[in-house]
Design goal:
The chain has eleven helices and twelve strands. It has one domain (about 1-340): Luciferase-like domain (TIM Barrel, Alpha-Beta Barrel), CATH 3.20.20.30. The chain is of the alpha/beta class and about 350 residues long. About 45% of the residues lie in helices and about 15% in strands. Pfam families: Bac_luciferase. Keywords: Monooxygenase, Oxidoreductase.
Length: about 350
């Protein structure tokens, strides 16, 4: 199994110090985190997209291009690109350029996104939410397959023998679709034959098993090969020497994270310690604990999904960089080797 990390570049106030990082420093920390992950032998590094003042990453391709110059081996992916409101030609050419810069390490993880600020920003209507994604994904995959493209659709001007440049170093850019819990999204990913990245941020992971089954069933029925139908799982992680230590250290940041995310969505709720303890229980999808406990949770999910990739989000809630660096070290040295060994048969 490939093991990696991703960031949404949220800019949160540290609940313990009251300090808020600048966008400049947040991006520098992300580049440093990617460098540490690469040096530690992790497989993938992802950067998300948001168009808000409380996030530092409106352009994942630009940040990943900077990371490409600071790293050597690690794969570089968006996490996610909001495909409904992105021009597929611009998206493809940006990541093909990243592929050239990184010597063949670029990937695209496309999704519809949990926020809608990009719709008015780029002149789209939320009434076309699903239809835009469907059309843009169709075009993106055609651009990936062909050097010249003739295409027409509803939301974009047509292409006639358009030259799509540069071409990536890889034969094709790996493309994944992010799925948050919708059966329709799982079916879409299977029909297109892309990878499917399941965002499992809490609760019982077993509720996502039908989505994995739907994805594989649809992909095979549509004529895609089994080896092309890859599943990734994403989750929040905090590791420490003991589970109690991990919970004590992470609770202020995790509670803080959901407080400001909920405020962004118009909800003013705050998480209690007892709520957190329940969310971090042994049967849930929140990875908080000792390395051994996190290994056990990843392998429990592997039994459910048989997935090929696990991506951890470990820099949320205004944490200082030292916490993130510690998490990367534990993930790479004490968690990833066991998971890889146990899933290599």
């Amino acid at each position: 199994m490939e093991i990696g990390i991703y960031t949404l570049a949220d800019i949160g106030t540290d609940p313990l110090t009251g300090e808020t990082i600048t966008a400049k420093d947040r991006i520098q920390d992300i580049i440093q985190a990617a460098k540490l992950a690469d040096e530690a032998g992790l497989d993938v590094f992802g950067v998300g997209e948001h168009h808000r003042l409380d996030y530092a990453s409106a352009s994942p391709a630009v940040i990943l291009a900077a990371i490409a110059q600071a790293t050597k081996q690690i794969k570089l992916t968006s996490a996610t690109s909001f495909l409904s409101t992105l021009d597929p030609v611009r998206l493809f050419e940006d990541f093909a350029t990243l592929d050239v810069l990184s010597n063949g390490r670029a990937e695209i993880l496309a999704g519809r996104g949990a926020f809608i600020e990009s719709f008015p920003l780029f002149g789209y209507s939320t009434n076309d939410y699903d239809e835009l994604f469907e059309e843009h994904m169709d075009l993106l995959l055609q651009l990936n397959d062909n050097e010249t493209v003739t295409w027409s659709g509803k939301f974009r001007s047509p292409l006639r023998n358009a030259e799509i440049a540069p071409r990536p170093i890889q034969e094709k850019l790996p493309v994944w679709i992010g799925v948050g819990g919708s059966p329709e999204s799982a079916v879409r990913a299977g029909r297109f034959g892309t990878g499917m990245a399941l965002a499992i941020l809490g609760g019982d992971p077993r509720r996502f098993k039908p989505l994995a089954d739907l994805y594989r069933q649809t992909g095979l029925e549509t004529g895609h090969k089994t080896e092309a139908l890859k599943i990734g799982v994403t989750g929040h992680i905090y590791a420490a020497k003991t589970t109690q230590e991990a919970k004590d250290e992470f609770y202020p940041y995790y509670s803080n994270y959901w407080e400001y995310v909920n405020l962004q969505r118009g909800m003013g709720t705050r998480m209690s310690r007892s709520d957190f303890e329940q969310l971090a229980g042994p049967e849930t999808a929140l990875f908080v604990g000792s390395p051994q406990q996190i290994v056990e949770k990843i392998l429990q999910q592997y039994e459910l999904f048989g997935h090929q990739r696990f991506l951890a989000q470990l820099d949320i809630g205004g944490q200082p960089f030292k916490n993130v660096a510690k998490g990367i070290e534990l993930l790479a040295s004490e968690i990833a080797p066991i998971v890889r060994r146990e899933t290599s048969e």
